[in-house]
Amino acid sequence: MSRINVFIVDDSALMRQLLTTILSRDPEIQVVGQGADPVSAWRRMKEIERIDVLTLDVEMPRMDGLTFLDKLMQARPLPVVMVSSLTERGCATTLRALELGAVDFVTKPKLDLTHGTHELGEEIVAKVKAAARARIRRRAASSAPVARVEHKAPQWSGAAFAEATHRVMCIGASTGGTEALRVVLTQLPANAPGIVIAQHMPERFTKSFADRLNTLCQIQVKEAEDGDRVVPGLALLAPGNFHMRVIRSGAEYRVRLSQDPPVNRHRPSVDALFDSCATSIGPNAIAIMLTGMGDDGARGMKAMRDAGARTIAQDEETCVVFGMPRVAIEMGGVEEVHPLDEIADVALRMALGAAKA
After folding, report:
1. Reduced to 3 states, what is the DSSP secondary structure of residue 128?
2. Whose CA, among 15, 60, 164, 271, lies 20 to 30 Å from 72?
3. For this structure, is 280 an active site residue?
């Protein structure tokens, strides 16, 4: 099997050297080129026959990284892993990069660049390997930010809404999940069931991501806080570096946050969320597994189905990485499989149907 060819674009010579060292240690990866800025990188890339993955710095001279990414996705679509900083500007730029088609991102350590980057080596290698398997589609010639779109999602009747107030949509996602979540959540009406979400994402990014979704959706979206109630019309996103679990408190559901050890190497973990939903919500839940690398959430989804929840997985064709949905299907935790743009409608119909039962 041929090795994964990686091209590195970063204006820091030290970061280029560190990424090259980290990636080259893995026998399945080889670095085939580097560029200090998008302009020089593009010239060098045209001379290389095969590039499987591009790592791209967020802020660079000569051409804005987002402009380069937008042009790349139109001219030569490639799996891109962003290398981002944990600044407010870095978070916003990285989220925009994911909208433009980047597969994933890794965050630069704030202090001790050499030591910190080597600590992130396993994550960088794993994300590059996942990106090499990602489905990349050519973008239309537009770099305008995503705008709020009014969708024709089914509105609930008053009676159905009253009967379904204790229904909860539980969503898990990883690689490619930021865009998948945008598609699903923007199709939900303002009176949709309460929603809890575990998306693999580091600290600070979850707050920026939730705020971004909140400007696009008819429902409200927020980064969860410990004790938040799960109520209709509200989506709660697990904060980076915290597990989120759902508990029953009298006649209502609330979320509990913790920094218990990572589950499946993740915090937040989809399994941690789904296991709690199986116990606390049972047949009142609709579980949704979106695109993602690995198997986090598969066991929890099986537990939810065994507890009577309705369960949906995103299909392979529309996934960026068909990992988490595939394992959930193989384990018997998935009731139905649908393309991404159908999932919101299917979930709503399941909620309505179950509410009437």
Report:
1. helix
2. 15
3. no
Q: Which of 132, 150, 169 is the last residue of a domain?
A: 132
* Judgement on whether residues 8 and 109 belong to the same structural domain of the protein: yes
CA dist 159 → 1, 136, 223, 356 (Å): 58, 43, 30, 9
Which residue is catalytic, options 10, 52, 228, 296? 296
Q: Is 296 a catalytic residue?
A: yes
Number of domain units in the chain = 2
Active-site option among 10, 26, 200, 271: 200
Helix (H) or strand (E) segment spanning residue 32:
strand 29-35
Catalytic residue among 26, 70, 84, 174: 174
Q: Is 174 a catalytic residue?
A: yes
Helices (H) and strands (E) in the chain, counts: 13, 14
Give me the pLDDT at residue 148, please: 47
pLDDT of 256 over the 90 cut:
yes
How does pLDDT run across 161-193, given as a tens digit for each residue?
Answer: 455 568 999 999 999 999 999 999 999 999 999
Tell me the CA distances in angstroms from 209 to 80, 176, 197, one per residue in order: 19, 13, 12
Q: Is 296 left (phi over 0), alpha (psi -120 to 50) or beta?
A: beta
Q: What range does the domain containing 244 cover?
A: 158-356
Region 312-319: what's the mean pLDDT?
Answer: 97
In this structure, are residues 197 and 169 in contact, taking their beta carbons and an 8 Å threshold?
A: no
